[in-house]
Amino acid sequence: MAKFKTVLVVTYGRSGSTLLQGLLNSIPGYYIRGENSNFCWGLYKSYQSLVHSMSFNNDKFGSISSPSHPWFGVSMMDESEFLKSMSHLACGQLLDSDSQDVRVRGFKEISYISPQILQDFDGYLGFLQKIFPDVGFVFNVRDNDAVANSGWWKNRDPEQVKKSLRNAEKTFEKYVSEHPENSTLISYEGLLSGVDAEKLYGFLGESFDKKSFERVIGTRHSY
User: Are residues 3 and 88 in the same domain?
Assistant: First the structure.
């Protein structure tokens, strides 16, 4: 039985996340979509603005209900209604599918290496849990040298790339250590060997299908 209704893959580019996406989609009833240019980050920033605005109440400017107050009207904001609206929007845009047989939905995103996101990592993932139902986070990493020599990364300073990757991985590791109930960390290398594949299936509450796994691993993903 699936432990989560939503599975979000948290990673950086060239980590093997498309292969992981393919593996997750090989599980009956799973529908895990690809990247979306970090669609939810803008929603999170809006949420932060709302919470900040709502912190202004009756103060030295007088009553918040007075038209003369600089934050007049902010009392009409509703955090609960905002989250409901954001959930409807995000789920409709990022999780929806045509199949009636889907048990678990989700998507992968590679933008988590951004310093801006890493600085507010727990807050952002906390927000994702507010707008998506029963979320499980799967953190995906890969050998840093291999990443630095792959795709667009190889056009950048390899030492700076590896520094950024390690900074992201430390943040990932810290989150998993503090939230083992809804997060796990796997590596591309461990996935290929099958060890982390079994670990992943166990985390999700699914039975490991070796034949299906081998079929996915033998299929080219991404580029």
Answer: no
* pTM recorded for the entire structure: 0.95
Residue among 127, 131, 107, 104 nearest 4 (CA) = 104
| pLDDT for residue 22 is more than 70 | yes
Task: State phi, psi for 63 to the nearest 5 degrees.
Answer: -75, 135
Examine the domain organization and report whether 83 and 48 are in the same domain.
yes
pLDDT (tens digit per residue) in 127-161: 999 999 999 999 999 999 999 999 999 999 999 99
The reply to whether 183 and 163 lie within a common domain is yes
Say if residues 6 and 132 touch (Cβ distance below 8 Å): yes
The secondary structure element, H or E, covering residue 9 is: strand 6-10
Bridge partners (DSSP) of residue 182 are none
Residues 167 and 195 in one domain: yes
* Among 167, 219, 223, 213, residue whose Cα is nearest residue 23: 213
- Which residues, 6 or more positions from 144, have their beta carbon under 8 angstroms from its beta carbon? 161, 162, 165, 166
75 or 160, higher pLDDT? 160
Domain that holds residue 73: 38-94
